[in-house]
Amino acid sequence: MGSADSKLNFRKAVIQLTTKTQPVEATDDAFWDQFWADTATSVQDVFALVPAAEIRAVREESPSNLATLCYKAVEKLVQGAESGCHSEKERQIVLNCSRLLTRVLPYIFEDPDWRGFFWSTVPGAGRGGQGEEDDENARPLAESLLLAIADLLFCPDFTVQSHRRSAVDSAEDVHSLDSCEYIWEAGVGFAHSPQPNYVHDLNRMELLKLLLTCFSEAMYLPPAPESGSSNPWVQFFCSTENRHALPLFTSLLNTVCAYDPVGYGIPYNHLLFSDYREPLVEEAAQVLIVTLDHDSATSTSPTVDGTTTGTAMDDADPPGPENLFVNYLSRIHREETYLPNSTKKIQFHQELLVLFWKLCDFNKKFLFFVLKSSDVLDILVPILYFLNDARADQSRVGLMHIGVFILLLLSGERNFGVRLNKPYSVRVPMDIPVFTGTHADLLIVVFHKIITSGHQRLQPLFDCLLTIVVNVSPYLKSLSMVTANKLLHLLEAFSTTWFLYSAAQNHHLVFFLLEVFNNIIQYQFDGNSNLVYAIIRKRSAFHQLANLPTDPPTIHKALQRRRRTPEPLSRTGSQEGASMEGSRPAAPAEPGTLKTSLVATPGIDKLTEKSQVSEDGTLRSLEPEPQQSSADGSPAEGEPSQAWREQRRLSSTSASLQWSPTSEWVLSWKSKLPLQTIMRLLQVLVPQVEKICIDKGLTDESEILRFLQHGTLVGLLPVPHPILIRKYQANSGTAMWFRTYMWGVIYLRNVDPPVWYDTDVKLFEIQRV
C-alpha cells in the first residue's frame, strides 16, 4: 500500500472516530485495526492527521470511544511485548500504537476528569499477564503500558541486537531474557559496547518519547511544593515491579555518558556527518532526569533487593529511596563514570546540567571524585561560558539559575576553592576582559559581567553569586589585577547611598563583599598584593561606608537620586578593557522567543546552611541564630531573614510603596559592618605606601606592588575570624524549582513532533519574550 493511501485511510479512520456518536465495541477489530494494522504513518503524520480539536471533541462527546482507543492501543503494545515482535508487521503495529498514544495522552492529562483513567483497571488484564478473568487481580492500564514499554526497550532485533548466532537459532524468549545482558552501551555495570544500529536507535527513541509523555502528567498539575515528587507514573516505573529497572537505568546513563559528538577523533567531523545519535542521547537524558525527580530533602524509604552487586554500585551504603533509579544513581562508585565532554556545541546542555546536578546531589562519592581531580574545572568552564552567554537573554533565565545553583553546591566544598587556583589557559572565547590568571579570576570576572550587564530578572541571583565568591575566598592564593578591580568596582556600586537605601536587602551584598576581602586578607594575604593595592587605591569606598549618613534628609536625598538613575548598577569606574579574541557580545532573546515561567527560588538563607571550618579543616554546622527583631526587619549579623526574603520577592515598585528606609534601620546594620580588618590594613599600609611614593617619587604601580608583595601584617591585624561556609542544602523549594525548570526545558525542546504544544499545561506558563 502506498504511503499516500495509507495516510488517507488513517485519516478516514480518525474522521470516523470523531463523527461516531455511538460507542464502538472493543471487539470490533475491523474498525480499530485501521489505526495501526495497515498503516505506515510517521510520528509527524500522526500529529498532522489527528488534530488537537478532534481529540478534545472525542474526549467530550464520545468518551467511551477515546477510552477504547487507548485501551486497544495499550493492548497491542502488551501483545507485542509478549510475542517479542518477531515479524515486521508486529513491529509496525507497536510503533503505530506508540505514536498514537504519544499524540493522545497529553489531552487525557489536561482534563482533571480523565486523569484517573489510566489508573483504573481493565477487565481481563490480570497482574499475572496471562489475562485472568479475576478482576481483583487486574492491573491498571498505566501499569500494563509502562511494563510493555520496558519490555519493548529490550526486544531483540527491534531495540537491541539479537544474541542469536545464526538465523536457524530459535528466537530469544522475551520472558526468560536477562536484559542485563542487553544493556545499550558500555559503561556502568557493562563492559561490552554493542555495534551501533540506526534502526534500533530510532525505535528506542519512539518508545522513550512515549515514556516521557506518560511521565508528563506532572505538567498538568499546578506547582505546589507540598505535593512532593510522587508522580505515579515515575513511581511505578522506577519500582521493583519493573524487572528492567537496573538495565534500563544503566542503558540510559551509559548512552548519555558514552556519547562522543565528535567521534573518530576528527575535529569538526560534525560538519561532515549528520549525527543520528544525538536525538537518542537527548531523549535518554530527558527520561533520566525525569525519573530522578526526587525530593532528596524528604527521602527516607525502605531498601530495595540487592540486585546491584557487581554493577559498579556500592552495596554497603544505607538503604536508599524506593525510586530504584535514584537508588542506583546514589550508589555508583566507579571512577570511570564521567559526563560527556565535547568540542561540538550540543543542544541538550540544559538536560546535562540537570543530570550533573542530580549526580552531585544524590551521590556524594561522585561529588568528591569530581572535586579531588581538576575535572571539576572542565565542568566549571562550560558553565561559566553558558552563564556569560545567556546573561542578556530573558528566555534563558532558567539556565542562568541552574548554572549558579551547581556552582553554589560545588563552592560549599573546600576542594573546589583550592582547584580554582589552577592557571586558566584554555581561552574559550567570551566577551569578558582579557586577563592573565587562574580559574578563580575567570569565575569572578564572569560574575562581575553578569551583575553589571545582565538583564533585570537576574537580580535575585546576586546574593547567590556573591555567596559562591565568599565560600571560595579563603582559598584564593593570587587574584589578578583585573579581578581585584572588578571586586572593588562591585563594592563601589553596591555601597552608593541610593543603592543601599532603595531596598531593604541591598546592604547584604556589601556584607558579602566585605567578608570576601576579610577572608583573603586574613588567610591569603601573601599572594594577594593586587587586591591589597586595589583596596588601598579605592580606600575612600571603605571610609564612606564607615561614615554612612543616617539622618532622614540625606536618606531622602539619596532616594530622590535613585529615581533619576536609569540603571541598577553604574558601570563607570570599571575599566572593561578589550574582550577576548573571537568572542561576540551576549545577545538578548529574539523577539517572540518562547520561554516557560519558573517558580520563585528560595532565599539564600533557605538555600544554604552555615558551617564553620575547624582548625583541622572539618566543617561544623552552625545552629541558625535566632533573628533579632527590629522595627525594620533587619536580620542579625547581616544575615538574610525570612521577612527580608519576602521583601525581595516584591517588585521594586511595590516594595518602594510598602517600605521606606529609616535612620534606625540604617544604624541597625551599619554598626555591624565588618570593617575592622580592612581599616587596620589601611591604617598600617597607607602611610607606608605614601612615604615610598614621596621618598622615591614613584608613580609606577609595579614598585608599590613589589613593596606590598614583601610586606606583612603578622601581629598587626585583629585575630582571624573563623571561616564561615554557606553550604547548599536540599529543600522542597528547590525541588519544586527544578521540577518546573526541567519540564519547561522538555516542553520547549520537543518540537518535532510538538508533543505538548497547545495543551493546557498548569505547571508553568508559556510566554513570549
TrEMBL record:
Region listing for Disordered, in residue ranges: 297-316, 547-655
Organism of derivation: Carlito syrichta (Philippine tarsier)
Superkingdom of origin organism: Eukaryota
One Pfam match: Hid1
Name of the molecule in the record: Protein HID1 isoform X4
GO cellular component: Golgi medial cisterna; Golgi trans cisterna; membrane
InterPro entries: Hid-1/Ecm30 (IPR026705)
Extent of Low complexity compositional bias: 297-313
